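Feature request, filed as a ticket because there's no other form

It would be nice if the structure record came with a short human-readable summary line next to the tokens. Right now we just get the raw output. Example of a typical job, pasted below so the devs can see what we mean:
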Amino acid sequence: MLKAENIEELSKEELIELLRIYAKNWLAHDGCWFLSLEEQYGIGLAMDIDREAWRKFSVIEAKRIIDFLGLGKNSGVEGLKKALSFRLYTTLVDGKIEIIDDTKLRYYIKGCRVQAARRSKGMIDFPCASIGIVEYSYFARTIDNRFVTRKISCPPDITNYYFDCIWEFEIIENK
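Raw output as currently delivered:
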């Protein structure tokens, strides 16, 4: 049994484990919310609503990370790399961030819990690309408004089976 009486008494290791538990709880809630919509209204309307929720949430999450990290406005590729590394979801996946040059980076994700959960229930893969483009575009543009986001590989359009999804972010001046 844990000896701590509250969060402030937890060790660093216990806090990191609690963060992972919180991240799993957050993702489970997101999944339950989505599945409830899907069961009631069908996948099309559920995805429309989910895209709108991610559009709003991604901006909120990015702004809080900017403040926490002290990134400032338009922090470029280095700022986005750091911000992606501090998203709650990163505690749950095996991700890799590759800086291509001073205007472009790629984010690779392995071990997607959403797809694994659906597969374990005998469900088809979640076609998350259209939601991911909203999520990652709004997150990246909040970090630096010059970013354009492209999907390299993501269900239903998988071009690289080693990763669950791959996203590319590029700074485009004078958009």
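Something like this underneath would help us a lot:
The chain has five helices and four strands.
The mean pLDDT is 93.
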